[in-house]
Design a protein that fits this description.
Layout (H helix, E strand, L loop, with lengths): L1 H12 L3 E4 L6 H31 L6 H18 L2 H9 L4 E3 H34 L4 H4 L2 H26 L9 E2 L6 H7 L5 H33 L5 H9 L2 H18 L8 H25 L2 H16 L3
Parallel strand pairs: 1-3
Antiparallel strand pairs: 1-2
Length: about 325
């Protein structure tokens, strides 16, 4: 019995790497996924970097709303970069391994940026509430010190989420297969590999991540409840539409981000399908960071004007 115990512990301590099975093992599909993935990654980086540069370059965009949007774009860049380069590399390589430490770090940074994005979205909802419901006090409610504090708090929440969850997940024993049925080290597929009792880790994930999601979603719902109440008091229908249109982009991003996140992390492990989870994760890890700059830019007149102004300055700049 003691010998078996020693053997099991040896197997647990000898696990130095995982194998990421990716989205598909079909070579033709892998080439297609690589081409699509590279295009999306470059487009996402370009879109979010453009938003950050425009906000920095145009004085008219030095407002609380665009300060938060710039932070969201930076978070999106970090968010997609935690998973995409490794996925693209694996699609071109037969060696799809990731070291144990690499898997830990990937999960940590992914959970940090994901929770930070959720917190920033709730802060952006508060910003819309302050602008619409308290326009005369808006400058005070969203002063620079307040914005900096909210920014720091968002990243602190993200780090807390990542530290606790990552610590509990990787304190488990992994003594059987090391093949992760996913394209990155996410919580559900890594838990699926453990030969330990995962109930405590699942409970911690549910409590920590669930608390963050419930709190941020509740703040968003409360903010929009107060916004709607205020907007309905506007007598002009055109005025109501114009006021509420400033929230449309934010509501779209919130809907996409939280619907996929809640579906993935707030279900019991018994209901998880690895194939289904891989497809859903493409939405919140790849598509969402791509859509955010498009959603916030295409119908945003301030961003369009800033873009044209920057192009105009370059056109008139002497060689």
């Amino acid at each position: 019995m003691e010998i078996n115990g020693k053997t099991e512990r040896k197997n647990q301590t000898n696990l130095k790497e995982f194998i990421l099975l990716g989205l598909s093992d079909d070579p033709k599909l892998q080439n297609l996924f690589f081409a699509m993935g590279l295009f999306v990654y470059v487009l996402t980086l370009t879109g979010n970097l453009t938003i950050m540069v425009l906000i920095q370059a145009d004085q008219h965009l030095h407002t609380p709303m665009y300060f938060l949007l710039s932070n969201l774009s930076f978070t999106e860049i970090c968010y997609i970069t935690t998973t995409m380069p490794k996925m693209l590399s694996d699609l071109l390589s037969e060696d799809k391994t990731i070291s144990f430490a690499g898997c830990v770090l990937q999960m940590y940074f992914f959970l940090t940026t994901a929770a930070t994005e959720g917190a920033l979205l709730s802060v952006m909802a508060y910003d819309r509430y302050a602008a619409i419901c308290h326009p005369l006090r808006y400058t005070m409610l969203m002063s620079q010190p307040v914005r900096r504090w909210l920014q720091a708090a968002s990243w602190a929440i993200g780090n807390l989420n990542a530290i606790v969850n990552t610590a509990f997940i990787f304190s488990l024993n992994f003594c059987a297969s090391n093949k992760i049925m996913h394209f990155f080290c996410d919580i559900p597929p890594v838990l699926h590999l453990s030969c330990s009792d995962t109930s405590l880790a699942e409970l911690v994930t549910f409590i920590i991540s669930g608390s963050i999601m419930i709190t941020t979603v509740s703040l968003i719902i409360l903010s929009y409840f107060l916004i709607v109440s205020s907007v309905l008091k506007i007598h002009s229908a055109q005025g109501r539409i114009k006021t509420f249109s400033t929230c449309a982009s934010h509501l779209t991003v919130v809907s996409i981000f939280y619907s996929t996140a809640l579906f993935t992390y707030m279900r019991p492990s018994s209901s998880h399908s690895m194939e289904q989870d891989r497809l859903i994760s493409v939405l919140y890890t790849i598509i969402t960071p791509l859509l955010n700059p498009l959603i916030y830019s295409f119908k945003n007149k301030d961003m369009q004007t800033a873009f044209l102004n920057v192009l105009g300055k370059k056109a008139h700049c002497p060689l």
